[in-house]
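Record type: ASSEMBLY
Status: queued
Input:
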Amino acid sequence: MIDSSMFQLVCFYAFAAVTVGAALGVITLRNTVHAVLSLVLTFFSTACIWLLAEAEFLAIALIVVYVGAVMVLFLFVVMMLDIKQEHLREGFIRYLPVGIIIALVMLGEMLALIGVRAMHMAVMGANPATVAGVSNTEWLGHALYTQFLLPFEIAALILTVGVVAAVALTLRHRGGVRHQSAAQQVAVKPSDRIRIVKMAAERPAQDKNQEPTP
Amino acid sequence: MPNINDILIMLPELYLVVAACLLLLLDAFMKPEQRHWLHWLSVGALLMAIYLVVAGQPAQPVVAFGGMFVRDGVSEILKAFALLSTALVFVYAKPYLIDRKLFVGEFYTLMIFAVIGVMLLVSAGSLVTVYLGLELLTLSSYALVALNRDSQLSSEAAIKYFVLGALASGMLLYGMSMVYGATATLDLANLHTAAAHTGAPKLLLFGLIFMIVGIGFKLGAAPFHMWIPDVYQGSPTAVTIFIGSAPKLAAFGMAYRLLESGLGDLSHHWQQMLAVLAVLSLAIGNLVAIVQTNLKRLLAYSTISHMGYLLLGLVNAGPEGYASALFYAISYALMSTAAFGVILALARAGFECEEIDDLKGLNQRSPWMAFLMMLVMFSLAGVPPMFGFFAKLLVLQAAIHAGMMWLAIVGAVFAIIGLYYYLRVVKVMYFDKPVEGSELKMQADPSVRVVLSLNAISLLVLGLSWGPLLGWCKSVFPG
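Status: finished
Output:
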């Protein structure tokens, strides 16, 4: 008989395994488009883990924002780049054994030392949203604008820095670039475009060839 | 619920945010030839912020936004000196920026945002504010390093800085998530009590290790120092001078907040880790600096060794140790600004003054500059009676009082080794013949001349009368 907490644990491990596998795929796949799609899978399975942790809003936001918007944009960029795939993996095989050994040793140490099983459900209390009797989104919104107002505003500041940095690093004023100025176009006067020249009337010049012979 | 008191406590930060936004707007509507107004307004904004910090210093630590933000003596002294060193950076950088066509408003805005990050970081009362303050500081720094877009060296430095910095932030965040998992709190004050009786001590310890990796990266302590030489050499000198000053104060503030305010109960664990970092930094910094020919790279390795000395103070894990480390961080910020200030003052359009050989015969060309550089080098080397000497003395004393005599001996030995490469710069300036055809002379800008002289001479004055500053540093760490 499987009780619900057992089922949750099984789900968690399944999603975690998919997340780690997909993350490995991101850095090992030969084809860059496949790597990006693998990253989408990583995000998706992470969202599933967050759902298990009863963070519904974050899970949906991750899928809508990252999978829906950011990764699609990423895919466009990757497809537009002309990447030579042979050069990307130089040195990868050479460093792979060392990397795998280090990763396995770290994993083994951490599993042995932390003892995930022992602390399962030990410190974290009940879900605050459930305690307050509101939905996850409502609780999150409330916490974000009261308890976490300062971090929220600092995050806004970080985004401002991102905009300023992007402009500072990419905007170039090149000389000789033709562009329209709507204000100048509207404010144009007839005298700017047409010059009326007063000329004295002249007799047509006489052509030498057609000069009548005397 | 946040109220008006929270806002009043955060007044210096909020003021500076408003000032930065106004400067950003002003720059958009300003003609390029009016930009020197922006320069002086930025310097004025920082000086005003120093006044707000010092004038509003609370007698007792106060918290705002439910403990997210702490205003106490430690944060005030760090903020005051971070703002001061940034104002110095602005003054020194102006002629350099104009010469290299980098005199843009974003330089000032990004740097002010970075200082806001420093202020939030040293005042953080929660793991979330530590992380966000750090990100604000580092993101602005990445952009500043890359500011000279036409230089390949700058771009390379920026990418290295960005990748390694993102890795370090990831490590720090990973550690924070483990600490949160073990204690179920983000608030540093609560963390201090919760850490004492956690149900998962091993997890907490793992979190601590990852956080120390993050702190090591930000300090630039070996073995997490790889980014320092490349970033120092590659970025425009006007940015290098910033990275060498205020962020070092911030890194000390971060280490203090996380290790003492948050995980002070685990001090017997992190003392040993910091001791290892300190020894490695002292060794790598001092030994590799000997073979450098590039002045900026030399100062980069000297930074690594100085962070080793700073760690000697933190290893003490008591009020005396923190006071000495704080004193050391302040002395380093002032010395580093002065050292890079001289490099900036000697650089001209098309000439960087980056190699040690560029300083050959500086005494014949510009005796006053050579004298100022000599003061700075003596102070960095720790020659009595300079500022740097007393800073070194205090951290060594702190290490001895922590029962780590061997660590103090290592520190003293490497101080003597370090003497070699600092004095080599002095020797090149005073005893070598100037290279034919090179014109080493000081920038004509009088503001740079006056402020740089004051900065370098302050190293001597603070060395002769170090009592008041040390008293201030000690008063903020009640025993």
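Annotation: Chain A touches chain B through 28 residues (CB under 8 Å).
Annotation: Chain A has ten helices and no strands.
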